[in-house]
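Hi everyone, sorry if this is the wrong subforum. Our group has a chain we'd like a structural model of before ordering constructs, and none of us has done structure prediction before. Sequence below.
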Amino acid sequence: MQKQIEAYENDLISADDLKQARERVESERLSLHSHLDKLENQSGDPRTVKHNAEKFIEDITGDDRVKAKHAIRILIDHIVVENEQISITWKS
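Answer:
Right subforum, don't worry. Here is the predicted structure as tokens:
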């Protein structure tokens, strides 16, 4: 957004262009904030996670690596690795 402001100040873009950029940035900010709130409030029910894992245990522990990968992808929402910490968010 700073670049758009500077471009406006240097008469490189119009006020309408600056307004559109501001609205786009605000929309993206709200979307990211909403997504962050959703992630922070997401508390997967351990029973549901356990039940889902039990459904796929044979695929995960079996010899077919493709099935195992598929089952794991169904169970895991995302993985975050920071420094030496690994955080797994399970789908529920």
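For your construct planning: The two ends are 37 Å apart (CA to CA). The longest strand covers residues 76-82.
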